[in-house]
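Extended Data, record LysR family transcriptional regulator
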Amino acid sequence: MDWDDARVFLAVYRGGTLRAAAASLQVDQATVGRRLRALEEVLDARLFLRTPRGYVPTRAGEVALSAAEAMERAADQMLRLTQGTDERVSGTVRVATSDTMARFFMMSAIQRVHEAHPDLRVVLTTSTHLSNLTRREADIAVRNVRPDNPDLISRRLARRELGVYASKRYLKQHGEPRRGTAFEGHSVIVYQRAYFGARAETLCGEPYGNARVALEVNSGLMMMEAVTRGMGVGELANYMADTTPNLVRIWPDCREFYDLWLVMHGDLHRTARVRAVADAIIAVFEQADTEQAAASKGRT
């Protein structure tokens, strides 16, 4: 099995269909099917069962998986190591983060990079999904979870605060919720349990069991939009909500904190183009903290 065959096998294994595999490899579906049949002939083994639900790996396919993944790790490591010696500030850097981080911080960092290094292309992916940096789904990630993979390096960017907010319109119509009532008589906007787990049962630690759940979202920007429109009470980061005139913070002492981390693969963090993007991200967060400290001092 060569690496090209292994890539096809892994794409089918992970995608479950020829169409999904073709999309991930950016080739046509017929090519994937032809390469898979050729691989099975070379190995003299059936790697997948074709079922109405898609391609299901056989016992031989399960055995082949570990070998194919080992080839993938070796290929990725070779790519990272060779790119790690590249001092050109050009090419492509893949960045993964959430939509709120992108809107309020990352766009400023990318703009700085573009102005300083016009030959450098940034590919930005916004999602609640944690990108796999070892598989090169991203070169840099900004996330609120510190990685435990020893191949990854991380730097704490900032500590951010969550609060409970509602629009002026909502409060005029419904009044302010009373603490200890589990938001009885009120509507709330919450995060989908599939994405945020047990946190979805409270707003900054306050249970909302007596509330009407008006909307479930999987995006910070959609949470912001719904609360701003007066659809209900929601949990928002203060860097977003405090700069929105239509929003009011309920119970200012009700808060939670979380850390933000800049994450890179250890083999890539000294690559010139990756370093340029990382430095811009760090600078934007440092500037935001400086401005926030100055604003807080001005209010005292």
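Summary. The chain has three domains: 3-76, 91-152+260-298, 160-258.
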